[in-house]
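[Discussion] Sanity-checking designs against the backbone

I'm trying to build intuition for which residues belong where. Below is a structure token string of 234 positions. I'd appreciate it if someone posts a full sequence so I can compare it with mine line by line.
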């Protein structure tokens, strides 16, 4: 059984000339688009990069990583990888648990039992009515007025963000969504060029120039014949 598994797993095959038949185009999404789809915290911390990859190499293409070769003026010679999907999702999960909306509603929920416990010191129907209004209608009203947007935002991130070792079939085209930390590019020298306004707006073309060249790394895939294994009960 182990030999059969090893035979099936040996699917990766490097072939010369593959890069000549792989097309790629990319751009940086505006901050407002990122905030609408993935939340203000992700838009504040990351630049979202969309890459369109077309594979006409004759083989399926397994994407290993997306890197950026920063301009020589930065002094960074090594290619810089994009941020992993799990790290970006962790930032969104923090917003879900400790964001302004979540913190405010949790405070209201926590004060309800505290105020109810004070009924032993401040008796009376008036105090009981105030506590009831604070604990029930106010709490439910805040949840309706300020809905939790992080749940659909995490679902959008899960469905769109690129995963490790993504496979692009031959003669197909895929859209890859990745994220790059803003702190990687923003320095004292270029802060005015890359950041505009208090909401973190930026010049898309300036960010693309700051990122430099996109480098796509991967390997072509070929497949051995299907193997059928029959297991008989003892």
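Best answer:
Here's mine. Compare freely.
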């Amino acid at each position: 059984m182990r030999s059969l598994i090893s035979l099936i797993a040996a699917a990766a095959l490097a072939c010369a000339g593959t890069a000549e038949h792989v097309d790629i185009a990319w751009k940086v999404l505006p901050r407002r688009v990122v905030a609408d789809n993935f939340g203000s915290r992700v838009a504040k911390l990351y630049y979202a990069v969309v890459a369109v990859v077309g594979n006409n190499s004759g083989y399926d293409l397994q994407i290993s990583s997306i890197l950026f070769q920063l301009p020589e003026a930065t002094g960074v010679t090594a290619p810089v990888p994009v941020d992993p999907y799990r790290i970006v999702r962790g930032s969104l999960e923090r917003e879900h648990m400790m964001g302004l909306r979540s913190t405010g509603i949790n405070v209201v929920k926590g004060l309800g039992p505290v105020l109810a416990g004070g009924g032993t010191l401040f008796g009376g129907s008036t105090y009981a009515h105030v506590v009831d209004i604070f604990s029930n209608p106010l709490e439910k009203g805040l949840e309706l007025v300020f809905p939790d947007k992080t749940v659909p935002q995490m679902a959008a991130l899960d469905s769109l963000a690129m995963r490790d070792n993504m496979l692009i079939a031959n003669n197909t085209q895929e859209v890859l969504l990745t994220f790059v930390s803003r702190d990687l590019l923003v320095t004292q020298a270029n802060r005015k060029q890359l950041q505009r306004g208090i909401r973190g707006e930026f010049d898309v073309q300036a960010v693309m120039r700051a990122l430099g060249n996109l480098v796509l790394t991967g390997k072509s895939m070929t497949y051995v014949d299907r193997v059928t294994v029959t297991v008989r009960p003892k």
